[in-house]
Amino acid sequence: MPENTRRRRMAAMRGCDRVLSGNPPATMRELLARMEAAGDSDALPDFYDGGPVTALEERVAGLLGTEAAVFFPTGTMAQQVALRYGADRTGNPTVALHPLGHQELHERSAYSWVSGLRGVRPTTAPRNPTAGEIRALAEPVGTVVVELPLRDAGFVLPTWDELTAVAAACRDIGARLHLDGARIWESAPYLGHSFTEIAGLADSTYVSFYKTLNGISGAALTGSRDLASYARVWRHRYGGQVFQQWPAALAAMAGLDGELPRVPEYVRHARTVAAALAGLPGARVFPEPPHTHQFRLWLPHPAQALDEAALALAEEDKIWFAGGWRDTEVPGVAMAEVTVAGPGLEWTAADVAEVGARLIDRAGRHRP
């Protein structure tokens, strides 16, 4: 996305009185205020470690019920270290992961290019692999990756029984199970189990602090003490041993305090929003109902027309609906991801239907 388009969208969103999808971007002053509220601003910061970073690691390990957690500046780095650990401990550099997974599409296959590992595909279906597919792998693997939810398949989750079966299958073939849990926070309601129970199925779990919790950056890799010791060494080798990371750590703590308790409510309301959107002329949502507070929406207009209509609605009527539309393989049909967060809780089904109709009307007028 061009930078000027991104900035125009963020400015339009921030100027809106009502927001359906996502959160208006916060100013740096607002972010600083959240950080100050999340910790003792008179305490010393971290110096390569300690301070709020250590406090955050301990809190996340407690939330997920793991022996330890290690803070990373990026999830890409954390996941590389998790997969490298699996290769070193099992002696097998082969990783089973989905072609729609974050490691392939959004990390530019760093596990292969940087860490020298090799990927195999347990499935190409738009969902996470099943236990049967894990057992049917044609060759041994050191680690199996499951992404919760699989974002680029439409934020889809396995059921709890399917996930526990996958964990058992990994044990049966002698492979580690790594959970890409960047969005684990919103996965728990659908799975019907606690973070501790979910992470307890895996050998390692990565979590993000900015995707749902509205932090400014950062991630954590959780698991055994041995994994944590290994992760700290490789974090340094990958260039992630940053002198001070207290702003990211405090922003993450603020998200755990303020956003995490509200996530189940976001997930529940996403089903109301999705049902209302599905009733718009020519619309389709997936999954139906959503598995998390995020889902996909298709409308029968080109992406450019919908983006222009959304910006016009925001700038003229001060209402943000949804942006980031992408054209699909079906001519004249575009798709956007919808995220129901705090501002979206104010919308009733009738609100969604009424504003959705206005967006579609505008898109028809903007259609090239």
Automatic annotation (TrEMBL):
Species: Actinoallomurus spadix
Q: Which family does it belong to?
A: Belongs to the threonine aldolase family.
Which SUPFAM superfamilies is this protein grouped with? PLP-dependent transferases
Q: Does the keyword DNA repair apply?
A: no
Instruction: Identify this protein by name.
Output: Beta-eliminating lyase-related protein
For whether the record's keyword set contains Lyase, the answer is yes
* Cofactor(s) listed: pyridoxal 5'-phosphate
Pfam name, any one: Beta_elim_lyase
In alphabetical order, the GO MF annotations are:
lyase activity
The organism's place on the tree of life at top rank: Bacteria
Residue span(s) of domain Aromatic amino acid beta-eliminating lyase/threonine aldolase: 26-288
Which of UniProt's keywords are assigned here? Lyase, Pyridoxal phosphate
